[in-house]
């Protein structure tokens, strides 16, 4: 079978182990186009691992995962799964933007070079065109003055905003955020969340692993609570946050809220 | 105005500047004196010992043959290093391959070539002409296969005469580059492994291929770690060109200077000339290393001096108000 054409992300029984430790124990999840899904849960619950499975940074051991109707990392032919070649995996990833907890900007390139690198090198966009678009994107995240700065000349919040611009430069259909504000000083969290809020309002499909309950409540269309490798509870963020049904959700929220 | 004046001056008077008696360091003065005396004795020896023959040395250390030798030494150093670095990158990438055969082959190469003294390797390569007179490349085991099929034929693409290739400059370059590749492989591997794995992950997430990630993201950052030990290697290589005597390559610098010394029985002046030549050439290479290091430290703080950074921070604070 192929993935439901209507869903941007569709996971069925996704499992993943590292050695003998099973980190994901059968995840089912659906993300509609334009939807913002926030994933919360205690550390070690598998939420980051699940996010990394969506763009095949981690290989899944069982289950199926589709992005925009295409199986991630595999091709199904004659009832058998075939691993995709590196080149094909890379092509799939072009449509999926990812923002990391530790920013992972390229330190030997300026902000603009970071943003321009993939469109020019991977998509073959003309350099002048990519630069114009890069400056536009950096202005959009409020860094029009900082295009020629190296990452180590930027604050954490500024670096994370460059990282968001870098991911957007590939014009992805889906954006994955892996705890984008967890490594930031508290006073810098707001500027990054503001950019993400603007992105959500522009209609981007987003999966956000986060500890920012306020963001999840105000921006998220749905909230997923994961614990110990399974989805414990999912639904409308306001409902889940104010009236959690499952005792594990209740216990977690009572600690963080 | 008059009412405000007492407010601004009401702050307590600034504390008095400290004018403490500094700690004395008599040991440093004694050490400096001892060093000064030793230096004076050294200069005195250079100036008074007639064996040095400074005039003779100056007259003979820039003859056309010596200058040609210096050129050979420099060209050999650069060529052997370029080949060695390229070979080292290939071996380092092989060594990090998930395929155990590929990684094992690289390990074996490094093990073998690091174990052999360069002078032994150079001597061996210079005599490869004795192993086979002619070296040919083509289909492996072609003659055996043709025999099996009942034909009298072979399948060779090209070949060369061992006694023509494994002599002089080519043999020397081959030996030094092969040996250098093994050392550079370990240096490059350390450099690649020093780069945060998150960098490759970010590149992959952007849809970059493995090759492009290595070329554009990982290697440029690894260069920061690779360059300083490579500078050491280059200096060592410059000096190891004197081992070319084992091939033999006689146009090389040290051989030329010693030849003059032996011919004229002025051993010490020409040995000193050799020292001075290698000092000068090494200094030249160090200048090159300085600029390379500067180039590859972009984005790692060295591009911005402390004063510049302080000025920028001050400007930032000002603009936020």
Automatic annotation (TrEMBL), chain A:
One protein family per Pfam: ABC_tran
InterPro entries linked: AAA+_ATPase, ABC_ATPase_HisP-typ, ABC_transporter-like_ATP-bd, ABC_transporter-like_CS, MetN_ABC_transporter-like, P-loop_NTPase
Record-annotated ABC transporter domain positions: 9-253
Top EC class, one word: translocase
Gene3D superfamilies listed in its UniProt record: P-loop containing nucleotide triphosphate hydrolases (3.40.50.300)
Reaction(s) the record says it catalyses: a polar amino acid(out) + ATP + H2O = a polar amino acid(in) + ADP + phosphate + H(+)
Example of a GO MF term: ATP hydrolysis activity
Keywords, sorted A to Z: ATP-binding, Nucleotide-binding, Transport
Superkingdom of origin: Bacteria
PROSITE patterns: ABC_TRANSPORTER_1, ABC_TRANSPORTER_2
Enzyme Commission no: 7.4.2.1
Protein family: Belongs to the ABC transporter superfamily.
Name recorded for this polypeptide: ABC-type polar-amino-acid transporter
Organism: Geodermatophilus siccatus
UniProtKB/TrEMBL annotation, chain B:
Gene Ontology MF term list: transmembrane transporter activity
Subcellular location: Cell membrane
GO cellular component: ATP-binding cassette (ABC) transporter complex
Membrane-traversing stretches: 29-52, 73-94, 106-133, 267-292
Start and end residues of each ABC transmembrane type-1 domain: 70-287
Topological relation to the membrane, as annotated: Multi-pass membrane protein
Protein name: Amino acid ABC transporter membrane protein, PAAT family
